[in-house]
Design a protein that fits this description.
This protein is mainly α and 274 residues long. The chain is 79% helix and 0% strand. The longest helix has 28 residues.
C-alpha cells in the first residue's frame, strides 16, 4: 500500500498535466470501479440492504470524495512531494478527532507532536503566505482533514461492512460525481495519449482499487491512529519518487518542513514503553 501510494503522487501529477481535474478523476475512478466490480463478482460479495448502513456508507463516501477532490485540485498547483507531506498530516487530524469522538487517551508527548506537525506545515508554505501560492496548500490540508474524518467515521459506523464492497461503493460514487462535473465544466470524451492511459490505469486500478481496499481492510483490524501512523513513510518515498520521476527539486525548506511534519506525526502515534 505504501509503495503504491508513494508512486501514485508522481502518476497523478503527470495525469493532471494532461487532463483537467474532474476528467482525470472520472477516468481514474472508472478504471477503479470496473476493477472492483469484477473483484466483487469473483468473491461473490453480498450487497448491503440495510437502509441505515447505506446512509452511513453514503456519508463516508461523500466525505472521502470531497477530501480527495480538494487534494487533487491542490496537487495541480503544488509539487507532488509537498502535496504528499501535507496530505499525510492526516494522522494528526485522526488523533485529534479520535480524542473527541473515540475517547482516545491524550498525552503531552502527543501534544508536542501536534505542535511540531503544525510548525512543519507553516515551514512548507511559509514563502507562499499572503500570496495565491498558499491556497493549494490549504486545499490539501483540508483534504487531509476530511480523509481523517472519513477514517474516524468508518471506525464509528462501518467496521462491519466488507472492505471490497465499501471501496467499490466509494469508487462508483466518485466516478458518477466526477463524470457529472466533467461533463458540465470540462470534456470527459477528449482523446488522450498512451502515457495518459497508463497513468490513469495505475492510479485507478492500483492506487484506488488495490491501495484503498488494503487501507479499508487494515482499518477494520487496527485502530485508526495506529494505521495512520503506519503510512508515514509515504510522503518520504513520494519526495524521492517525485525527484527521480519528475525531476522536482528537494530544497532545504521542503526537507526541514517535512522533517517537522513527520517528527510530529511520529510523536502523535508513538507508543510509550512500559
Amino acid at each position: 500500500m505504501v509503495l503504491i501510494w508513494s508512486v501514485n503522487w508522481s502518476a497523478m501529477k503527470i495525469g493532471l498535466e494532461i487532463a483537467t481535474v474532474f476528467t482525470f478523476n472520472f477516468h481514474r475512478f472508472l478504471f477503479s470501479t470496473i476493477f472492483l466490480l469484477l473483484f466483487c463478482i469473483l468473491r461473490k460479495v453480498e450487497w448491503v440492504k440495510d437502509i441505515q448502513t447505506n446512509i452511513h456508507i453514503i456519508i463516508y463516501c461523500l466525505t472521502s470524495i470531497f477530501g480527495f477532490t480538494l487534494t487533487t485540485i491542490g496537487l495541480i498547483y503544488e509539487s507532488s512531494g509537498i502535496s504528499a507531506v501535507l496530505t499525510y498530516t492526516q494522522p494528526i487530524w485522526v488523533f485529534i478527532l479520535s480524542i473527541l469522538l473515540l475517547n482516545e487517551a491524550f498525552s503531552l508527548t502527543k501534544l508536542l507532536g501536534i505542535l511540531l506537525g503544525f510548525s512543519g506545515i507553516i515551514i512548507l508554505f511559509l514563502g507562499d503566505i499572503g500570496s495565491i501560492g498558499s491556497f493549494p496548500s490549504i486545499l490539501i490540508i483540508f483534504g487531509a482533514i476530511l480523509w481523517a474524518a472519513s477514517t474516524i467515521y468508518y471506525k464509528m459506523r462501518l467496521e462491519g461492512v466488507d472492505s471490497i464492497y465499501l471501496n467499490f461503493y466509494n469508487s462508483w460514487t466518485a466516478t458518477l460525481i466526477a463524470f457529472i462535473l466533467s461533463l458540465i465544466l470540462e470534456n470527459p470524451f477528449k482523446t488522450f495519449n498512451l502515457d495518459y492511459l497508463l497513468v490513469v490505469f495505475y492510479s485507478g486500478v492500483f492506487a484506488s482499487g488495490i491501495g484503498m481496499t488494503i487501507w479499508v481492510f487494515l482499518l477494520k483490524n487496527e485502530s485508526a491512529v495506529t494505521l495512520s501512523s503506519s503510512s508515514l513513510i509515504v510522503p518520504l518515498l513520494a519526495l524521492i519518487f517525485s525527484a527521480v520521476i519528475l525531476g522536482e527539486e528537494i530544497g532545504y525548506r521542503t526537507i526541514i518542513g517535512s522533517a517537522f511534519v513527520l517528527s510530529g506525526v511520529y510523536l502523535v502515534n508513538r507508543n510509550r514503553k512500559s
